Amino acid sequence: MKKIVCVLSFVPVVMWMVLIFSFSAAPAVESSETSDGISYKIIKAVAGLPFLDWEEEDLEEKAEILHVPIRKAAHFSEYALLAVLWVIPLGCMTKTNKKRMIVALLLCIMYAASDEIHQLFVPGRDGNVKDVLIDTAGAGFGILVWRFIFHNFSCRRKAKNSMRT
Asked: pTM here?
């Protein structure tokens, strides 16, 4: 039963990697339209605040300013989640948290680099070393968050169990 659970724990990782690959496979125009749409929706939501009186032209200008930060935040967050998704099944393969966190980070770095190489073959896209660095930072952040949560949870569980005995 434990082996089945371990094998199944890799399913979310693979699914997330396929999703990242599909984002990267989108031609530049399509990818840019997606980012622009998200930027515009964020600005439109902010513009709904009662003290703001922005015209449509202002909304578009402000959305354009958000375009790059939205794209970079997407890189950061998608790799933060990928790292957490890697850490979980790697627990089946190694006993130490340090080792599984390092392996998860290395796997994320390799996937980020391969993803940027993949983008070299997508119309209008290019590979970007900065994006690999942002992805790596996101993966590191995801691992740190996982470690913080895991550490707090396991400490509480140990404390609770020691109170019972």
From this structure: 0.84
